């Protein structure tokens, strides 16, 4: 059995984003591409509806660390570690609806392929939905494990800030991974998809 380059990278470096030759699913397997991007990205830009003057009611986009699980076996659910002291989280208290944008521009892939971040070939996704606090103990454990694994600094964030685990509840997935405009994926198809090939030649 052949071991593909990305698999070797994952084993050697832990983070595939530091490796060349990311094994991206074919662009027409849109749901798989979306899961792949969501799993590779370590941060997302989250847009909320601002509750703050002087931009109240206007879109407000801000960077957040995310993790959907281990690299190669992501759950597809972007988990976050939040505090109500944070400006965008305050927006979410008023209106939990949000949009998350993630791009392979944050991996080495687009740079090595010579792809501009705005090129659809530099695959990026936009998730519509809302932020929910994770109350279930087992799910919170999962979120903690894989957020802290990707973002070890989180362990040392100030204990008096009231950090909690949250997840992005996806209602619609928008995918830009090729020419011809945006494609959409339902949450059902997104969660059914397998982003990584199990066998190198089975497609
Ligand atoms: C967690 O509990 C809060 C407060 O009771 C509730 O608003 C929220 O919807 C719950 N989250 C989930 C994922 O059920
Ligand atoms: C979460 O998303 C699903 C669609 O995947 C939607 O049906 C449901 O209403 C959402 N839940 C909340 C609390 O927004």
Report on the structure:
- The protein is an alpha+beta fold and 203 residues long.
- It has a single domain, classed as Pnp Oxidase, Chain A, CATH 2.30.110.10.
- Helices cover 26% and strands 25% of the residues.
- The chain has helices at residues 5-13, 30-40, 87-94, 108-112, 137-150, 187-192; strands spanning 43-49, 59-65, 79-82, 97-103, 124-133, 164-176, 183-185.
- Strands 1, 2, 3, 4, 5, 6 and 7 form a seven-stranded antiparallel sheet that branches.
- β6 and β7 (183-185) form a beta hairpin.
- The longest helix has 14 residues, at 137-150.
- The protein is globular.
- The two termini are 15 Å apart.
- The structure holds 2-acetamido-2-deoxy-beta-D-glucopyranose (NAG) (2 copies).
- Residues 132-133, 135 line the site of one 2-acetamido-2-deoxy-beta-D-glucopyranose (NAG).
Shape, per Cα inertia axes? globular
Q: State the major sheet.
A: 7 strands, antiparallel
Q: What would the CATH topology be?
A: Pnp Oxidase, Chain A
Which stretches of 5+ consecutive residues score pLDDT under 50?
1-20
* Helix and strand sequence: HHEEEHEHEHEEH
Cα(first) to Cα(last) distance is 15 Å
Helix/strand-derived class?
alpha+beta
Q: How much β-strand is present in the residues? A: 25-35%
C-alpha Rg, in Å?
17 Å
CATH architecture: Roll
Helix content: 25-40%
**Cofactors, ions and other ligands in the entry:** 2-acetamido-2-deoxy-beta-D-glucopyranose
CATH class group = Mainly Beta
Question: What is the total number of structural domains?
Answer: 1
Q: Count of DSSP helices?
A: 6
Give the rounded overall mean pLDDT.
90
User: CATH H-level name... which superfamily?
Assistant: Electron Transport, Fmn-binding Protein, Chain A
Task: Kindly state the number of beta strands.
Answer: 7
């Amino acid at each position: 059995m052949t071991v593909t380059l990305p698999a070797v990278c994952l084993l050697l470096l832990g983070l595939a984003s530091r490796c060349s030759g990311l094994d991206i699913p074919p662009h027409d397997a849109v749901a798989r591409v979306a899961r792949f991007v969501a799993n590779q990205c370590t941060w997302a830009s989250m847009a909320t509806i601002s509750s703050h003057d002087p931009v109240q009611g206007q879109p407000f986009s801000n960077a957040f660390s995310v993790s959907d699980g281990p690299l190669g076996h992501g759950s597809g659910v972007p988990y976050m570690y939040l505090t109500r002291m944070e400006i965008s989280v305050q927006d979410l208290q008023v209106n939990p609806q949000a949009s998350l944008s993630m791009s392979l521009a944050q991996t080495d892939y687009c740079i090595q392929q010579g792809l501009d971040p705005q090129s659809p070939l530099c695959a990026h996704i936009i998730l519509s939905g809302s932020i929910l606090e994770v109350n279930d103990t087992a799910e919170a454990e999962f979120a903690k494990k894989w957020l802290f694994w990707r973002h070890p600094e989180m362990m040392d964030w100030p204990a008096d800030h009231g950090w909690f685990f949250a997840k992005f509840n996806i209602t619609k997935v928008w995918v830009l991974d090729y020419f011809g405009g945006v494609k959409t994926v339902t949450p059902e198809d997104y969660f059914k998809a397998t982003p990584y090939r199990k066998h190198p030649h089975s497609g």
